[in-house]
Amino acid sequence: MLDIKKIREDFPILNKKILNNKNLIYLDTAASAQKPKVVIDEINSFYSNNYANVSRGVHTLSVESTFKYEDARKKVQKFINADSEREIIFTKSATEGINLIANSFASKYINEGDEIILTVMEHHSNIIPWFLIRDRYKCKILFANIDSNGNIDQKHFESLISEKTKLVSITHLSNVFGTIVNQEIIKLCNKEDIPILLDGCQSAAHIPIDVKDLGCDYYVFSGHKLYAPTGVGVFYGKENLIEELPPYQGGGGMIADVSIDGATFTDLPAKFEAGTPPLVEAYGLGVAIDYVNELGMSEISEHEFRLTNYALDKMQELDFVDIHGANKNKHSIISFNIKNVHSHEVSSFLDVEGIAIRAGHHCCQPLMKHLSLNSTARLSFGMYNTEDEVDIFINALKKCRDFFTK
Amino acid sequence: MNDLIKELYQEIILDHGQSPRNFGECNPHNKSADGHNPLCGDNLKLTFYINNEDVIEDIKFTGEGCAISLASASLMTEKLKGKKIDVAEEIFSDFTNLVSGSSEDLKVLNEEDSLYALKGVGGFPMRVKCATMAWHAFKSALKS
């Protein structure tokens, strides 16, 4: 069992008072996680003691920086159980990771009439890059339906697969429903020999990840949702696959040789890391991974799963609350509406109670349209949340209902 | 109950949010525009008719949104109906100042005005866009 009281002491922001001197109850970790003091301090220390650019100079500081940066890559590799560090590319965000694979993959493999399969519950960051590819290569983007629980409709998904399918790109853990993709979907892609990209923005922070067990070919996640700084994301690709792909961006650090006639490119992973990378942020991600590992990803996951079910049970007792896709397969994320009250009202009301939740379309407008919703409210958990906080949240929902629908 | 919430959601806001006035499409109309808040997906369609004397003879809106955006649109149509365009533009700039927290130099709006009820939005910066969505639609319709 995690000692949540002790964990909470590691997060300085949890002492903050909101508006009317209310204790902060942070239920918006799916948007971004708060940072433990060790991450904040280590970033400070890096800038104060070791900072220089990486992989360039031969002086002491450059060596120290490079060592710290590459050490972070090893930590990420182990964290998702990739075969090699060469498979770990640091990006500025998960979004950049998807743009990277979309552009590199398409320039090599996508032709007019080819098809890419997504689902209707994807985040805009796993839709828009593919729309841009569609416009450039005249390919088609197909959207698999979901069922009422927020799981992919497997039959519909299967029906979309054909010899035209070049890639499948889907969320691993839905940022609206909290549902985890059925392993059968991945197996099906493997069986059909269709490359599959998992958007791991939510999953990397909430469940242990083993990319080999999962069977995905590509995986992206962002650091900031995993208690690390903003500005760093990870793109993972199987070595034999990404070795074949052309670079995504050009710049310093990714070349083997340049003349006025042209250039040759360096090896993995630097081939995909043009320009000065987010090296301090990547280091911060490594520190966050150490912190998470020390507590145990499985323990964190269990705690959050228990908390999600605790909240679900309590919310289902409230007849004025609609939960979207209420089922026990949810992890860390619950989207809901108070009947006849707009999610913005709910969020503003909770805000003055000290409670931070998300309101809006969650960057999932196609899903909102699919569900015929304008917007939803969403609570999401991190390792630092407690049952007491859920109780206060539930009580605030009742007050909110009373205020707006009296 | 919390004062901040009470100030944000005054009785008149809740009333107009729940039963917006001038809800529908204006026929005939010679100006129209769509308002959209990309932050949340709220949207509205504004239509109005300007006569030969530059007076807004009729103005209506449809759409979906939160109480703040609906109330603001509803109060806006009430306020602008019958106004000359140049006055309406002054009201627009007063209103945008009011909800962004600078209520000192207002030209035409005063505290007696129903639109003053939206002043509390200034305490919630992320909600300012909710309050101004209809107004920006009005402004862009004028330009169209």
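qc> Chain A has two domains: 4-30+296-405, 40-293.
qc> done
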